[in-house]
Design brief:
By secondary structure, the chain is of the alpha+beta class. Among the domains are: 15-102 and 269-362 and 554-601, FAD/NAD(P)-binding domain, CATH 3.50.50.60; 221-255 and 367-456 and 483-535, Cholesterol Oxidase, domain 2. The longest helix has 18 residues, at 486-503. Helix content is 23%, strand content 21%. Helix 3 (79-88) runs parallel beside helix 8, helix 6 packs across helix 15 (587-601) and helix 13 (486-503) crosses helix 14. Bound molecules: flavin-adenine dinucleotide. Residues 75-80, 99-102, 120, 145-148, 152-154, 156-160, 162, 289-290, 324-327, 329, 333, 540-541, 574-575, 585-588, 590 line the site of flavin-adenine dinucleotide.
């Protein structure tokens, strides 16, 4: 019934209670002009919703009617956004509305670490994207994992907590980003985390590790002979034992640290957003796809979003619009809103609000191949999570005991150097006592096996994200350009050779049966490069597509306050602002960015620099 007016179903409720509705229980308002309760922000202003599938209809949604108003409106409800929403509303007065395209994070596999395999390709909680074919993938379309639920990718990722190296952030500062050197951002890493041991002890150096944050960071106590063998073999191969890769030095081998406590995943939704959900000044809306940032001249005024029933609504921001849709969707949203490379926007018939060439450039990722071997004289996860053994592991998991179900998919990290003369490691190996059919994460092999992935820590190759049309429902085009530099190709080959050396060390003699990937026939560097191109996969550590940079950097999208250049009232806070890929997994750095962004947005003084 287009145009039909409905009474506001919550008009008698306190205004924020009326807003604190998730799509699960959200009343379906197919089309409507609805009244706002008189004591709400934006009091007396009508809220418009209507079915607007097409572009022409969307265009009517510029800045015409007043609407619900919040201090901050956030596009995306992922890793960074959940922290932002929780921090910004801590004072009880600042109002925030968070819009997440995906559903609530109620899928039961999200909380179980081994549920990773059940969510990784599940279109109900992921975006189900693929990359464009390129030479570095031998023409394959590689799967691009991205969470699409509250908590975003932190709800479906491998849970590994890895900050990267101090040198990464000192490099960000050297590029002209004031306040982002390691000494500046270490207090924000610490503010997020609660690093704890199995008996409640506090492993690591207090100067470097957080103790009171909302995010538990633990190391698995689960035992398996292949784990000990891998660590011993790495040490034998010249990689030192390192108690804490998030401590003073990353170089070395040890078990991974994960956002897992008592066998349960802690996404940023679990750790930050859900505890804040009772706040009257926080509204969280799921199944709400943001389709456009509204602009008045060079000022961002709000967001337009589409509910999953096709109805459309809009919000106004009093202080700032915050884009936090992740490194693949934040640039897409800016481009759809007329902020981006002018040629690209014109090609798709989008009016250019601000020509910002860097939007969608500089896409970074960790591209890596998996070396796989059959093992003998022991079982592996392949056998432990099937049939009766699965039941047994399930009982241990339910009792909070170490279980095959309570680990990150990668259990050991080894940070190695492609050249012993390097100051810092530049290769990242991740070992798991499991193997998959065709070497691709998914269905476990029938026989016992092990896998070690190798990727380059700071790849030089970068790619692009761009819209394919002006339709916000169309997926973005992803061109990662993996292995487009000689240095990346060379180090990629060394990475595979490093894993082979470890697998062939004496400590693995009793366990190594046959290498199945790349396999004995793959011998020369040329063979290995061909193997990498034909088999490597994304690390799903996308970043850099709205990079932070100083005034003189024409490709910078945000400044060091995370404000979008040339547009007032618009900030970005997520993996897309990273100037370059950090030498580790990207969840912890995103959390740090969100923590710092919240302080900057609230105009708080930065936390004191660390004395290191
Ligand atoms: C499968 C997988 C495994 C990974 N493993 C690890 C790991 O073990 N350790 C690690 O450190 N890192 C890991 N990562 C990377 C890490 O999880 C991400 O870098 C990080 O979580 C990204 O945070 P973000 O806030 O930038 O984006 P996200 O957490 O992806 O959040 C973006 C959110 O915005 C929403 N969104 C997008 N567009 C819109 C729109 N138009 N409207 C409304 N909402 C929108 C999305 O649905 C999503 O919820 C992994 C990633 C994946 C996908």
């Amino acid at each position: 019934m287009p145009g039909a007016a409905l009474a506001h179903p919550h008009a008698k409720l306190p205004c924020f209670a009326a807003m604190r509705i998730e799509s699960g229980g959200q009343p379906r308002l197919p089309l409507a002009v609805v009244g706002t309760p008189p004591h709400c922000p934006g009091a007396g202003m009508p809220v418009y919703t209507e079915k607007l599938p097409g572009r022409a209809a969307r265009d009517r949604w510029t800045s015409e009617g007043p609407m619900e108003t919040f201090d901050y409106v956030i596009a995306g409800g992922g890793t960074a956004a959940c922290i932002l929403a929780a921090r910004l509303t801590e004072d009880g007065t600042t109002t925030v509305c968070l819009l997440e395209a995906g559903p609530p994070d109620s899928n039961p596999y999200i909380r179980i670490p081994a549920g990773f395999m059940k969510t990784l390709y599940n279109p109900a909680v992921t975006w189900n994207l693929t990359h464009e074919p390129c030479e570095g993938t031998a023409g394959r379309r590689v799967y691009a994992g991205q969470g699409r639920t509250l908590g975003g990718s932190s709800s479906i990722n491998g849970m590994i907590y890895n900050r990267g190296q101090a040198a990464d952030y000192d490099g960000w500062a050297q590029r002209g980003n004031r306040g982002w050197a390691y000494a500046d951002i270490l207090p924000y890493f610490k503010r997020t985390e609660r690093r704890i041991g199995p008996g409640g002890e506090k492993p690591g150096d207090d100067r470097l590790r957080g103790r009171d944050g909302a995010l538990p960071v633990t190391t698995t106590r689960w035992q398996h002979p292949l784990l000990d063998a891998f660590i011993a073999a790495a040490v034998e191969s010249g990689v030192p034992l390192n108690e804490d890769y998030n401590g003073a030095d990353q170089f070395g081998v040890c078990r991974v640290q994960s956002a897992i406590l008592l066998g349960k995943r802690y996404s940023t939704a679990t750790a930050f957003l859900h505890p804040a959900r009772g706040r009257a000044n926080l509204s969280v809306r799921t199944n709400a796809l943001v389709t456009r940032i509204t602009l008045e001249g060079r000022r961002a005024t709000g967001l337009i979003y589409r509910r999953d029933d096709g109805s459309v609504a809009s919000l106004a921001a009093r202080r700032s619009v915050i884009v936090s849709a992740g490194a693949l969707h934040s640039p897409k949203l800016l481009q759809l809103s007329g902020i981006g490379p002018a040629d690209l926007l014109r090609e798709h018939g989008i009016a250019v609000a601000h020509d910002l060439p860097g939007v969608g450039s500089n896409l970074g990722d960790h591209y890596g191949a998996r070396v796989v071997a059959r093992v003998k004289n022991t079982d592996s996860l392949n056998n432990r999570v099937k049939g009766a053994r699965l039941l047994f592991e399930g009982v241990k998991w339910a009792l909070g005991q170490p279980s095959a179900l309570s680990n990150s998919p990668g259990v050991i990290h080894a940070f190695c150097k492609s050249d012993p003369g390097l100051d810092n490691p530049d290769l990242n190996l991740t070992f798991m006592p499991a193997s998959f059919k065709a070497g691709v994460l998914g269905v476990l092999d029938d026989v016992a096996g092990m896998t070690c992935a190798a990727s380059i820590s700071r790849p030089e190759s970068t790619g692009t994200v761009s819209i394919d049309s002006s339709n916000p429902l169309a997926p973005p085009i992803l061109r990662p350009n993996y292995f487009s530099t000689e240095n990346d190709r060379r180090r990629g080959v060394i990475g595979v050779k490093t894993v082979r050396r470890i697998f062939r060390a004496a400590a693995f003699r009793d366990y190594l049966d046959t290498e199945t990937l790349p396999g004995a026939d793959v011998r020369t560097d040329e063979d290995l490069l061909a193997f990498l191109r034909g088999n490597a996969g994304s690390g799903w550590h996308y970043n850099g597509t709205c990079k932070m940079g100083p005034e003189g950097d024409a490709m910078a999208v945000v400044n060091d306050q995370l404000a979008v250049r040339g547009i007032d009232g618009l900030h970005i806070a997520d993996a897309s602002v990273m100037p370059c890929t950090p030498s580790g997994n990207t969840m912890a750095p995103v959390m740090m960015i969100a923590e710092k962004a919240a302080d900057m947005l609230l105009g708080k003084q930065a936390l004191p620099r660390a004395e290191i």
